[in-house]
Amino acid sequence: MFDTEFLDIPPLARAGGTVRLPGSKSISNRVLLLAALSEGETTVHDLLASDDTAVMLTALKRLGCSVRQDGDTAVIGGLGGRLVQRKATLFMGNAGTAMRPLTAALALLGGEFELSGVPRMHERPIGDLVDALRQLGCAIDYIGNEGFPPLRLRPGQLKLDAPIQVRGDVSSQFLTALLMALPLVASRDIQIDVVGELISRPYIEITLNLLKRFGIHVQRPAGADSWQRFTIPAGSRYQSPGEIHVEGDASSASYFIALGAIAESAAGQNSIEILGVGADSIQGDIRFVEAARLMGAQIDSSPNSLRISRGKPGQGWPLKAIDLDCNHIPDAAMTLAVMALYADGTTTLRNIASWRVKETDRIAAMACELQKLGATVEEGADYLKITPPAQRADWKTAPIHTYDDHRVAMCFSLAAFNPAQLPVRLLDPKCVAKTFPDYFEALFAVTEADTACIPVICVDGPTASGKGSLAALTAQRLGYHFLDSGALYRVSAFAATRAGVSLDDAAGVARIARALPVQFEGDRVFLADEDVSEAIRTEAGGMAASKVSAHPEVRAALLALQHGFRQLPGLVADGRDMGTIVFPDAPLKIYLTASARHRAERRHKQLISKGNSTTIVRIQQDLEARDARDMSRPVAPLKPADDARLLDNSDLSIEESADQVIGWWQGTRPF
Ligand SMILES: Nc1ncnc2c1ncn2[C@@H]1O[C@H](COP(=O)(O)OP(=O)(O)O)[C@@H](O)[C@H]1O
Ligand SMILES: Nc1ccn([C@@H]2O[C@H](COP(=O)(O)OP(=O)(O)O)[C@@H](O)[C@H]2O)c(=O)n1
């Protein structure tokens, strides 16, 4: 997951490959609650691991439910409709799929509970659900503002004789909440009447579908009223299905469907394949496929997978502008708003008023951020009209606010295919954790940028100047990859010695370097399966590295390996010749120095902390000898690149040095 302050996505050029989707959020949270309410144990496979499901799992545990987790499988011990814990304070984060149904279930089961969430949750209406529950005799108080969480629940006197009225035109989650809670008290038939037109019906279909899997058969009238009246039959009882599989998230699929529709194919690939969701999906957002087809996407579907490619020029590319009622795909339709940037005219998305009460006011958010990219946007109470930038030169870039809304962040990643080849900066990228913590990793695994567009920051300098520390911290703050090129020379020398090859045998060491089975995992370095991190980082290891690094054959042998680290979304590389030889086109090069005395003191501290005994004077002599060799060798000598910025960190901390580098980096960016 990228938990950086911002994520810069370089201009993307192509896409291709296979994506396995994380489990559906809507299904995961419903299944967890139903399993908890049921009699018996339920094994839930392919459960989504995300903020919203974590909220639900924590709440269920606090209510006395047993939960055993192993990877993406969870075993839930059902409460059998009885609460073990009748008093609890529950934090619901920003998870509507946890807040609404738990409120209903706990209010009906009786007990003393407080349910609260993040500030945005306290702005998301819940009054219609509370009104419906009060009709049933539940005792519910607003702790803060009338109509909004946080809520206090107390035991009440249930009256189940009259039909219950609930509004259906604000959020379908209110009806879902009642449908999931009422079977707990169905000693007689319970009728729910929906007032106003029911929105987001597909989500109710998911609820009804899953209720059936857990033994509850909701009755509905035939004909025109089939979405207005729901009856829970007397004697309904939750029964665990034993095992249940969660489908891939159809809303999350929308980003990769859009990707397939807008990106040229990567070499050797002709489409994006999505596994885990397909034509047999019970999720309403699967109908995003139809909308994407209308815009020109070429999509083949099988029961459990999808294959998407971009249309040929004039036949689906550029995308076709559409005018669509999006009530049936409220979440996935946001993705259409970004696809509209690649369309041949004005796209209108209608009947999307529910966007205003989601994680953020999504109509306002999308309008504001799309305009930052150069689109012309008209925003209405329940619609958006989007006209893309007229020409390549009209595209703009700016930091994109994500409003703590996972979908805004995921949508705008697709703007990186803009024809102006501008990078896209997303603020607070970790908000995707709500439903898809590894979204960006999944995106980068199936997209390609032109190599020259993938940024590299080079940090070169003498030994113990702090290059490694600075480069690693800078990489971490930017969410970039990190290359410790010195480690490659160290490992080459180590492997050569191990193989009995003399360090003076240039061809022999080069042969070993060319096929070096080296792997980096965090700050650990592996040679094949062996952790050699400590072994290579001795002073002797540094000297040996310095020796082999003077052979042109060895340097040439390691070049391709180093270039391979230049991957999305970017790289920070440390060494001696990163800016001069390996990445000469890097947009930022740092030449890092500190006085020999400072460097010797730092290295001394580092070595004694690892239990090695040595003196500062000895270290200073060693490092000056190594500097002299590195600077005077004929190939790739240590020297600042002509366009490098000099940074003397003798009196700077690692953090201050990183601040300086990131400050310079910001200066090179177009935002
Ligand atoms: N700016 C700094 N101020 C103080 N100590 C530093 C600084 N930068 C690095 N160090 C310390 O100096 C030692 C050597 O740093 P390292 O990053 O390994 O250097 P290099 O990669 O240039 O050989 C480490 O123990 C590190 O914590
Ligand atoms: N890009 C690089 C990186 C390291 N090296 C060599 O490898 C040796 C060890 O590199 P390192 O970065 O691990 O060394 P320290 O700076 O940590 O002491 C250096 O002394 C250089 O001689 C190089 O020639 N080119």
**What's the CATH architecture name of the largest domain?**
Alpha-beta prism
Q: What integer value in Å does the Rg equal?
A: 29 Å
* CATH topology category name of the largest domain: UDP-n-acetylglucosamine1-carboxyvinyl-transferase, Chain
The N- and C-terminal alpha carbons lie at a distance of 23 Å
Q: Any idea what the shape is?
A: elongated
What structural category characterises the helix and strand content? alpha/beta
Helix run count: 22
**Bound chemical compounds:** adenosine-5'-diphosphate, cytidine-5'-diphosphate
User: How many independent structural domains?
Assistant: 3
Residues in helices, as a percent range: 25-40%
Provide an overview of this structure.
The chain has 671 residues and is α/β, with parallel strands linked by helices. The protein folds into 3 domains: 221 residues, Enolpyruvate transferase domain (UDP-n-acetylglucosamine1-carboxyvinyl-transferase, Chain, Alpha-beta prism); 221 residues, Alpha-beta prism (UDP-n-acetylglucosamine1-carboxyvinyl-transferase, Chain), CATH 3.65.10.10; 215 residues, P-loop containing nucleotide triphosphate hydrolases (Rossmann fold, 3-Layer(aba) Sandwich). 35% of the residues lie in helices and 21% in strands. A 5-stranded parallel beta sheet has the order 29-33-28-34-35. Strands 3-16-18-17 form a 4-stranded mixed beta sheet, covered by helices on one side. Strands 5-6-4-14 form a 4-stranded mixed beta sheet, covered by helices on one side. A hairpin with a 2-residue loop joins β30 and β31. α1 runs parallel beside α3, α13 crosses α22 and α17 runs parallel beside α21. The longest helix has 17 residues. The radius of gyration is 29 Å and the shape is elongated. It starts with 5 loop residues before the first strand and ends with a helix. The structure holds adenosine-5'-diphosphate (ADP) and cytidine-5'-diphosphate. The site of adenosine-5'-diphosphate has 15 residues, from α13, α20 and α22.
